[in-house]
Structures are given as structure tokens and as C-alpha cells.
């Protein structure tokens, strides 16, 4: 898929998934516009670390990866997540288990992949973390609406009680792609804590709640 998708773009009329300009893959201008700078955006507990502001061209690139079948972007997005992942792992006494926020089963079927799990695996490989560091410990216990379909005010209720973690113990880091209201992260932290884990931090690729603070 990594080879054939860009080839198909070339044959069918390629354009940059970030800005739409003609060409193969992500254009130089979009690549230059994205510069990961991990920072704590919420003190917590647990602290929330974001790598980027959620603004153009990242918004279009994430959408292309998640909802338009551009799986070949996983390596690029994972590379942008990697600096934040490296920072939170280095702050721990030992490598914690890295837990992706799970997509709903209907979303996985529709997209053909669990995009956060794939993104985290790409970032973990880039950081050369131990095999098995990525641990999909969370499961959905009920159907939820896609967060983009729900108002900001209703997002907490949409996610509340929707996850369960496998029983266990030890230190974990929760990872998601985008933080808007934090409802998905809050529910993931709740489920992991209830099952016996200590959540050291939450990590996201991008901060959509306050992108202006990145100016």
C-alpha cells in the first residue's frame, strides 16, 4: 500500500494532501510549515503533552490519513509524534506501556485501520522503543458518535463510560491524535486508572483546543 498509493496518485492526477497543489506526495511548502515542538498544554494530573497546533496544513493531512485512505501518511505523521513520545518516555524511570485511544469498531471498519494505533506504532519505531511497548489495552464498551459529529458541550457525555481497560498494573502513557475538549483522553485515563494502571501522561499529535497559544 505504501508504494501503490503514491503511484495511483501519480497516474490519476496527483496533488498534495496538505494544500492541494499539483505534485506527488506532501509538497515542500507543507513539510516546511510543520515543525513539531512538544510542550505541556495541561498540567494535569496527568499532564497533557502536544507536539503541534492543529492548523493548516496539518488539519488536511490528518483528515487525509484518517478518512481519505492516505495510509502512506502514517510514517510522516508518526515522525511528527515521535519527538513528544521521546520526551514523555525519557521522563519516566523506565519505558511505560504506550496505550492508544481506541477508535470505535464501526470507524475501524469504515477506515480499514485503527489510525491512532498505526500512528503510535510508527512513532514508537521511529524512537526505537522496545518491541511490545505499544499496548492496546483499551476497548470500547458501547458505541459512540464520531467526536466531529458532536457539539463541544456534548462530547464528554458521548465518551463517558465508553471504554474499559484490561486489568493490570504499572505505568502507562495514553496517546491520541487530536485533543479538542479532552473528552476522549479523560475517558481513557479513567478506564486505565480504574483497572489498576498509573497514567504518567497523555500525549497527542496536535492541540485543537487552543492553537493560538502556539503562535
Describe the structure.
The chain is of the alpha/beta class and 215 residues long. It has one domain: Rossmann fold. It contains 8 helices and 7 strands, in the order H-H-E-E-H-H-E-H-H-E-H-E-E-H-E. The strands form 2 sheets. The protein has a 5-stranded mixed β-sheet with strand order 1-2-7-6-3, with helices on both faces. The chain has a two-stranded antiparallel sheet with strand order 4-5. Keywords: Glycosyltransferase, Transferase. Its EC number is 2.4.2.10. Belongs to the ComF/GntX family. InterPro entries: ComF/GntX_DNA_util-trans, PRTase-like, PRTase_dom.
Highlighted features:
five-stranded mixed beta sheet, 19% strand, two-stranded antiparallel sheet, 7 strands, alpha/beta, Rossmann fold, 8 helices, 215 residues
Overall shape = globular
User: In percent terms, what proportion of residues is strand?
Assistant: 15-25%
Based on secondary structure, the structural category is alpha/beta
Q: What's the CATH architecture name?
A: 3-Layer(aba) Sandwich
Largest sheet features: 5 strands, mixed
- Low-pLDDT parts are 1-5
User: Taking all residues together, what is the mean pLDDT?
Assistant: 87
In total, the number of domains comes to 1
Amino acid at each position: 500500500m505504501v508504494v501503490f498509493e503514491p503511484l495511483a496518485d501519480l497516474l490519476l492526477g496527483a496533488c498534495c494532501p496538505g494544500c492541494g497543489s499539483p505534485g506527488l506526495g506532501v509538497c515542500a511548502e507543507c513539510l516546511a510549515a510543520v515543525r513539531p515542538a512538544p510542550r505541556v498544554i495541561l498540567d494535569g494530573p496527568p499532564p497533557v503533552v502536544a507536539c503541534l497546533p492543529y492548523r493548516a496544513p496539518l488539519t488536511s493531512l490528518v483528515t487525509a490519513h484518517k478518512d481519505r485512505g492516505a495510509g502512506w501518511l502514517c510514517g510522516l505523521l508518526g515522525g511528527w509524534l515521535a519527538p513528544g513520545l521521546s520526551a514523555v518516555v525519557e521522563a519516566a524511570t523506565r519505558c511505560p506501556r504506550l496505550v492508544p485511544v481506541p477508535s470505535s469498531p464501526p470507524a475501524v471498519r469504515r477506515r480499514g485501520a485503527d489510525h491512532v494505533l498505526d500512528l503510535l506504532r510508527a512513532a514508537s519505531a521511529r524512537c526505537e522503543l522496545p518491541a511490545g511497548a505499544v499496548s492496546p489495552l483499551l476497548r470500547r464498551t458501547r458505541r459512540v458518535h464520531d467526536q466531529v459529529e458532536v457539539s463541544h458541550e456534548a462530547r464528554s457525555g458521548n465518551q463517558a463510560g465508553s471504554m474499559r481497560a484490561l486489568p493490570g498494573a504499572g505505568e502507562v502513557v495514553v496517546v491520541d491524535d487530536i485533543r479538542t475538549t479532552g473528552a476522549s483522553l479523560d475517558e481513557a485515563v479513567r478506564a486505565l486508572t480504574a483497572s489498576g494502571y498509573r497514567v504518567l501522561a497523555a500525549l497527542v499529535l496536535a492541540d485543537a483546543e487552543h492553537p493560538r497559544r502556539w503562535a
